[in-house]
Design brief:
The protein is of the alpha+beta class. The protein has eight helices and seven strands; from the N terminus they run αβββββαααβαααβα. The protein has a three-stranded mixed beta sheet with strand order 1-4-5. Strands 2-3 form a two-stranded antiparallel sheet. Strands 6-7 form a two-stranded antiparallel ribbon. Strand 2 (26-27) and strand 3 form a beta hairpin. Helix 4 packs across helix 8 (226-239) and helix 5 (168-177) packs across helix 8. It is globular and about 70 Å long. The two termini are 40 Å apart.
Length: 243
């Protein structure tokens, strides 16, 4: 981040942070999502704090905040509530806006979730440590990345790297048979059809592709117990078949 901020300053650029997975994460004591002009958070149902769907933008720039408020509601200069309270009797549309307003019900859910975020993230950290110890002892063939990552992680997902020669599809099928859901985070962006349709030429990202082909995401949520973690790790051991 220090290097990115230097590039931003030297080239008069604007930093917009994708902090969708970083609710409650810190770097050098500073919350992720607050380094740039704007921070973008996701409250989708699988995130560390959720409103079911939706998200949040943060900024310390009053001009940006004003424009975001306009764009989120069809580019209108006043809302129904403003007119009800007598602050305005009509409205203008000043820009091509969107319908990005979060409603009161989801906002109420979000406030409750926010109060639980710190404790839930702390629990995720404990579970991640248990995973790391159990995998190293029971299935040393696999790897867990980011052991020495800087800052305070949000511990959003639990990525696992299978050894060379493992059949990932067969591994995930066997995990499912043992009652453990797995996922992939993520297929590399440059391999998506939309990326190629946009006119970008194929990029030589061979290391990215090698890592991505071995990644599997294991269950991680605050309600897990130590026994749950051991059950998942044993399923990993039983499902790992090398070619």
């Amino acid at each position: 981040m220090d290097e990115i901020l230097c590039i931003i300053k030297e080239n008069n650029l604007t930093l917009i942070e994708d902090a969708a997975h970083a609710s409650g994460a810190y770097l050098g004591g500073k919350a992720l999502g607050t380094f740039g002009q704007t921070g973008c958070f996701s409250f989708f149902s699988n995130k560390n704090m959720t409103t079911g769907e939706g998200g949040m933008l943060t900024t310390q720039d009053d001009t940006v905040a004003g424009r975001l408020r306009t764009l989120r509601s069809h580019g209108m200069t006043s809302m129904t509530w403003d007119r009800h309270k007598g602050h305005a009797w009509s409205y203008d549309v000043t820009d091509l806006g969107y319908n990005y307003r979060i409603d009161e019900i989801r906002s109420a859910i979000g406030l409750v979730q926010l109060a639980k975020l710190s404790a839930n993230n702390a629990r995720r950290q404990v579970l991640t440590g248990l995973y790391r110890e159990a995998l190293a002892e029971i299935v040393p063939e696999v790897r867990m990345p980011f052991a020495k990552a800087k800052g305070q992680s949000a511990f959003h997902i639990l990525p696992l790297l299978l050894p060379t020669g493992a059949n990932r599809h067969a591994f995930m099928d066997e995990m499912k048979e043992q009652g453990v859901q797995t996922s992939i985070h993520y297929p590399p962006i440059h391999t998506f059809t939309a990326f190629r349709k946009a006119g970008y030429q194929y990029l030589d990202l061979s290391i990215t592709e090698i890592i991505a082909a071995t990644e599997v995401t294991l269950p991680l949520y605050p309600g897990m117990t130590e026994d749950d973690v051991i059950q998942v790790v044993n399923a990993v051991k039983n499902s790992l078949v090398l070619k």
